[in-house]
Amino acid sequence: MVRTGPPHTPPPRPVAVVAGVVLAGGVLVSGGLAGGALRGFLDRMAGVVALVALSVAVMLGLATALRGLLPPRARTAAQHLHRAFGVLGVGFLLLHIGVKVAGGRVAATAAALGWGSGDALVGLGTLACYLFLLAVATGVWRGVFATRRWIRPFRILHGASYAGWLTAVIHGLTAGRTPATWVVAAYALCLTATAAALVHRRLRRR
Ligand code: HEM
Fold this sequence. Notes:
Elements: H1 14-33, H2 36-65, H3 72-102, H4 108-113, H5 120-140, H6 148-158, H7 160-174, H8 181-205
Helix pairs in contact: 1-3, 2-3, 2-7, 5-7
């Protein structure tokens, strides 16, 4: 049966969307304008914080969908944390892009297009960024998809974050400094556990 009632979560009002876009632009520009020690910190750490936060956001999002695994209250808490880590991750991602462009590490057009920097591993960062933005947009308009007819398209579009995460991990571990072995091992473990949980969920649905 197709659900015809109002969506669970109302879509954001246009003023909230405009405010969000202006805020995101402000964060991106602040990354570029930062100076001194803050600039050094953002240059070294903004991408790292973005990757850790978005990794946690993706895994928490999956945990909320595993109905048998967590009791309803824990799933609600996971849902809140999923959104909080998503916002934190996207914020640091914008700072990361701003500081790398301002530092001349990549041109603004190459950062936007994912092409032209002469480094395909940097281009992967742009691809990851767009996949995460797609996940954010579908998350913000989640209520619009809250009918049986639209839940499948929602899962596919919001699930772009899995591809975004994998791409971001490859970018993050290869585009900059050489990571420590334990860092590579930790990401490999998280990706493997997530892939196993996705397979488990698919088999259970069948
Ligand atoms: C438009 C999108 C992106 C651009 C233009 C970009 C640019 C760059 C560049 C130029 C580097 C090399 C740093 C250096 O050698 O100084 C780098 C590294 C890195 N990026 Fe990105 N990136 C983007 C997206 C992402 C995303 C989506 C993530 C993770 C969520 C991420 C996380 C990292 C990490 C962890 C590093 C290694 C640490 C570092 O050197 O800063 N980046 N990025």
